[in-house]
């Protein structure tokens, strides 16, 4: 049954991504502003999350929305636990502000999905050029934050197995310190239902816990990231104790 559900959801995403991508490409060609193109993309992501709920039986339980900054131009850098593709779809669907992902440029070459994000005001980087890549993140990050767009990053860099912890890189907190934006740590237990690099998905509840803003002004980026890592990993153990049992 899980296999049939997984195939059905994959087909659902494959069929629905085409018209939304074409809409984004057309909007880009005729000069429609970035905010409108983002809303088209967010609509498809919401559709994918709804498809996961209906077809796969994956529910979401969100806590801590009150911790998000208020105000149209209030800045924020979201640092999110990364266990699967699910949270990349989910975050734009639930956040009250448009988001700018920082991602590796190789994703631009994925048919339809990559073409879509290439037309959005995201920040794509070449990971082999570390210094230049970070300068680009800071320069474009400042522009996005000033316009009310929140920056979202996965500090572990890649998806981790359920119950495991990757290496928390400091790019996100370095950006926060340089821009003065608060950091919002977010724990997500997506690995319970949508494992890393797994085709089969299972019904269940994905918990999303949004932590309180952590001020970045006057902080050292390494110390700040250590605080983010400590909160996220402790929250992951609280939300999904079975994954961390001895």
- Span between termini: 30 Å
Mean model confidence by pLDDT: 90
Helix content: 40-55%
CATH class: Alpha Beta
Identify the overall geometry: globular
Query: Number of helical segments?
Result: 7
Q: Looking at CATH, which topology would you report?
A: Glycerol-3-phosphate (1)-acyltransferase
Side by side, the strands of the main sheet go: 1-7-6-2-5-3-4
**Sequence of secondary-structure elements:** HHEEHEHEHEHEEH
Query: Strand content of the residues, in percent?
Result: 5-15%
Number of strands: 7
Largest sheet: 7 strands, mixed
* CATH architecture label: 3-Layer(aba) Sandwich
The gyration radius over C-alpha positions equals 18 Å
The number of domains: 1
Low-pLDDT stretches: none
CATH superfamily assignment? Glycerol-3-phosphate (1)-acyltransferase
Helix-strand makeup class: alpha/beta
What descriptive keywords fit this protein?
7-stranded mixed beta sheet, 45% helix, 15% strand, Glycerol-3-phosphate (1)-acyltransferase, 7 helices, single chain, alpha/beta, 246 residues
Outline the fold blueprint.
Layout: H1 2-29, H2 34-56, E1 58-63, E2 77-80, H3 86-94, E3 99-104, H4 113-118, E4 123-125, H5 130-146, E5 150-153, H6 171-179, E6 183-188, E7 204-210, H7 221-239
Parallel strand pairs: 1-7, 2-5, 2-6, 3-4, 3-5
Antiparallel strand pairs: 6-7
Describe the structure.
The structure is a single chain. With 246 residues, this protein is an alpha/beta fold. It has a single domain (2-244), classed as Glycerol-3-phosphate (1)-acyltransferase, CATH 3.40.1130.10. The chain has helices at residues 2-29, 34-56, 86-94, 113-118, 130-146, 171-179, 221-239; strands spanning 58-63, 77-80, 99-104, 123-125, 150-153, 183-188, 204-210. A 7-stranded mixed beta sheet has the order 1-7-6-2-5-3-4, with helices on both faces. Strand 3, helix 4 (113-118) and strand 4 form a beta-alpha-beta unit. Helix 1 runs antiparallel to helix 2 and helix 2 crosses helix 3 (86-94). The longest helix is centred in the N-terminal third of the chain and has 28 residues, at 2-29.
